[in-house]
Design brief:
CATH class of the largest domain: Alpha Beta
Shape: elongated
Number of domains: 3
Function: With S4 and S12 plays an important role in translational accuracy.
Region (Disordered): 1-27, 185-213
Order of helices and strands: HEEEHEEEEHEHHHH
Domain S5 DRBM: 31-94
CATH architecture of the largest domain: 2-Layer Sandwich
Number of strands: 8
Keywords: Ribonucleoprotein, Ribosomal protein, RNA-binding, rRNA-binding
Distance between the termini: 74 Å
Organism: Roseospira marina
Strand content: 25-35%
Length: 213
């Protein structure tokens, strides 16, 4: 007995939906997420107090992409889910030197928070506070020194850190902006008078380019 073509088509559509779901799950597996902070708030109503939860989540792919998001809901899992989805929609890409640290020192601020991020040699590890550490771990940074002054609010610390990361530039980006060659920006370690170290030169030029905008 021949099968109904409509039934066969429905089966193909079902497999297609399953394939899309698997692709979505694979994309989600690429990201690492960390719960930075969760806050319980209460609203006083006629019948008593009504509780809700606010979550702050950081998401990254471990290769230089990172984002953060916030979510509010009556239950903790739903608040975390909302925050994670928002973080994935607002991800930024940060250039990394050798895939492990920043190209140069950078400063950032948000509200009362002031952060300073410094590139570090191999083996230094992540020296930073809790919220800042979560950003670096999900982003894939292995060596960095971070300091935050003025606030201990995790929301302001994370936003100040992202403000700093958005001002991070690679030598190639600085060279393209200034119309020069990459070698002119970073300098050769040998044979160039006053060339200095490549990392220091890149940091100075990147800071100058950022300040000139």
């Amino acid at each position: 007995m021949a099968r109904n073509p409509n039934e066969r088509g429905g089966g193909d559509r079902g497999r297609g939906r399953g394939g899309d779901r698997r692709d979505r799950d694979e994309r989600d597996d690429e990201f690492k997420d960390k719960l930075v902070h969760i806050n319980r708030v209460a609203k006083v109503v006629k019948g008593g107090r009504r509780f809700a939860f606010a979550a702050l989540v950081v998401v990254g792919d471990g290769k230089g992409r990172v984002g953060f998001g916030t979510g509010k809901a009556r239950e903790v899992p739903e608040a975390i889910r909302k925050a994670t989805e928002q973080a994935k929609r607002t991800m930024i890409r940060v250039p990394l030197r050798e895939g492990r640290t920043l190209h140069h020192d950078i400063n950032g601020h948000f509200g009362a928070g002031r952060v300073t991020l410094r590139a570090a040699p191999a083996g230094t590890g992540i020296i930073a506070g809790g919220p800042m550490r979560a950003v670096f771990e999900t982003m894939g940074v292995q060596d960095v020194v971070g300091k935050c002054n003025g606030t201990t609010n995790p929301y302001n610390m994370v936003k100040a850190t992202f403000d700093a990361l958005q001002n991070s530039f690679s030598p190639r980006q600085v060279a393209a902006r200034r119309g020069k060659k990459v070698g002119d920006i970073i300098g050769r370690r040998d044979g160039v008078p006053g060339g200095g170290s490549a990392g220091a030169s890149a940091g100075q030029d990147a800071a100058a380019a950022a300040g000139g905008e």
